[in-house]
Amino acid sequence: MYSQESSPKEANLEISYTRLSPSPDPNGKDPSHAPIVFLHGLSTCQMEFSFTIPFLSRDYDLILVDLPGHSGSRNILPFTLDNAVNALSHLVSSKVTGGKAHVVGLSLGGVVALEFARRCPERMLSLFCTGCAPLSGYREWFISRPRLMAGIEILSGKLTTERTFWSFIGVEPFPRLKEEMRRNHSMELLSSGYGACTEMTIERVAEIRGVRIAIVAGGKKDSVEQTREAGKVLANTNPECKAFVVRDAVHLWDLQLPELFAQGIRAWVEGSEMPKEFELLK
């Protein structure tokens, strides 16, 4: 199995991010909610959340991150969970008042967020993550061969048409994002990213303490059963943690169903009832 545990750590890595803050309140009141940090999937970038942001930006302070090795943080290599968690911890502790934030993570971003919750629970107020349950079965077989996966992704990015590329993912074409993904495609980054996904085991999930977590599966692409299992493990130590499936969602469903994605984030951050499309997994 691929492992990055021997990779060197670097102190206080400065990752690229964009901050979107609500317009000032006419009565001079500060926003009532702590910031929400967004972590994207492998080979994409903060642009991935472009369709979700309009549904949240009027009410929340949003911090959109480029993970190490990606786009604005392309010079931070190698990508490792150590480097990603270090950079995220430095960002939250130095740029967020009070040193705590809500976190949203998708795919690789969800893996990073779970590891952040395991190592730095004092920096997190809540976590909404999707497409990041520990791997099993054929998914584990493929992802545990990171260079094979990296080669397939690089070739598909070069050889497929725009519509075919996005049709396989299950969303409408987004040419600007595909171009950014093409720039991020390298054997080093993709191998490291897929390798990192194999590190998030159910045993690591069981070590998380003190963070209220929603772990979600896109019903059309993600492993519902592994998400259910992760939810059970999280709830064993924190009954506030829950697992959900959105049956009509693909893996990158922030691009497919952005308004629903934002509604789920809003409900989880505010501790209110989740939208009806979020089916609780027990």
Give a brief description.
The chain is built from eleven helices and eight strands.
Q: What order do the helices and strands come in, and which of them pair?
A:
Elements (H helix, E strand, L loop, with lengths): L16 E4 L15 E4 L22 E4 L15 H15 L5 E6 L1 H12 L4 E7 L6 H7 L2 H14 L2 H8 L5 H10 L2 H13 L2 H5 L6 E6 L5 H14 L4 E5 L6 H4 L1 H13 L8 E3 L1
Parallel strand pairs: 2-3, 2-4, 4-5, 5-6, 6-7
Antiparallel strand pairs: 1-3, 7-8
Helix pairs in contact: 1-2, 4-7
Provide structural commentary:
The chain is an alpha/beta fold and 282 residues long. It has helices spanning 81-95, 108-119, 137-143, 146-159, 162-169, 175-184, 187-199, 202-206, 224-237, 253-256, 258-270; strands at 17-20, 36-39, 62-65, 101-106, 124-130, 213-218, 242-246, 279-281. 41% of the residues lie in helices and 14% in strands. The chain has an 8-stranded mixed sheet, sandwiched between helices. The two termini are 30 Å apart.
**Strand segment count:** 8
Provide a count of the helices.
11
The helicity comes to 40-55%
Amount of beta strand: 5-15%
Radius of gyration: 18 Å
Mean pLDDT: 92
Shape: globular
Query: What ranges have pLDDT less than 50 throughout 5 or more consecutive residues?
Result: 1-8
